[in-house]
Amino acid sequence: MLGPVQVETPAGLVPIGGRRSRTLLAALVIGVGRDVSQDTLIEAVWGSQPPPHATAALQSHVSKLRHVLGVNSIVTEDHSYRLVADCDQIDACRFQRDIQQAASVLPADPTAARTLVREATELWRGAPFGELSDEEFCYLETQRLGELRRTGEEIELEAGLALGMDSETVPALQAAVVGEPYRERRWYLLIYALARSGRRVEALRVHNDLAMTLGAVGLAPTHAFDDLAAMVAAGDPLPPLATV
Questions:
Q1: Which of 4, 81, 110, 137 lies at a C-alpha separation of 20 to 30 Å from 198?
Q2: Alpha carbon distance 146, 121 (integer Å)
Q3: How many domains does the chain have?
């Protein structure tokens, strides 16, 4: 799902049909382990104006997917279908699991956290769901996966700082705040990294830049930024990043 919708086996990619088959599979994957109603699937595949025999056509598409995924892969329950799959079989699920694990191990083992994020990011082949990414049925999931990816980027940056890689991490953080100026954690890490590298004047300038950026949309930095800026201005030693 982290790219064009496709099915891969140990023998390679397996054809799953055209756009409607890919749409059906994507909708089932989003609801994996849960019953997804026929009406929901029909709307995902055909939109608000389905053909007269949409139920029969849906059953045909489900049958074709079972042929690809296995006869027990899609369970019929009343007027619903449920995809049966392990997390290891779905790249989006593996990605989420690895990012969550990286976040949990970051304070104790930043090296492991960094490795987990990099391995998880390698699962991405493009925009989630490929050409289906703008479809209404997968919009929220696309946004959720994008947010997880940004979180992963921040975990990797924070792990680099925890490992003392300040000079290597600063350029990446500078690019990160330009790319997404309203993600405050990136600004915080940048100010911290600059200050710990002895670049306190630059760190305070970045703090001012953040204040102006947020002020332009009626917001202000949190108290944590004020506390950090006060330490930087006073020349006080910074606490370990994990406890900030």
A1: 110
A2: 11
A3: 2
Domain of 205 in residue numbering reads as 165-244
Cα angle 67, 56, 133 (rounded to 5 degrees) comes to 70
d(CA 209, CA 191): 11
Name, in order, each residue with C-beta under 8 angstroms of 196's C-beta and a sequence gap of 6 or more: 161, 166, 238
Looking at 62, 84, 106, the residue that finishes a domain is 84
Q: Are 49 and 161 in contact (CB under 8 A)?
A: no
Phi/psi of residue 26, nearest 5 degrees: -60, -45
Amino acid sitting at position 221? P
Strand arrangement of the beta sheet that strand 80-83 belongs to = 36-37, 80-83, 74-77
Can you give the CATH number for the domain in which 213 is found?
1.25.40.10
Cα angle for residues 170, 119, 147 (degrees, 5° grid) = 65
In a domain, 75, yes or no: yes
Q: Distances in Å between the alpha carbon of 63 and those of 4, 67, 72, 143, 236?
A: 21, 6, 11, 30, 67
Per the CB < 8 A criterion, the answer to whether 97 and 87 are in contact is yes
Other beta carbons within 10 angstroms of residue 101's beta carbon come to 15
Determine, yes or no, domain membership for 159. no
Query: The dihedral of CA 25, 31, 32, 34: what is its sign?
Result: negative
Cα separation, 227 vs 164, in Å, equals: 22
Residue 133 lies in a domain: no
What's the pLDDT tens digit per position in 90-140?
999 999 999 999 999 999 999 999 999 999 999 999 999 999 998 999 999
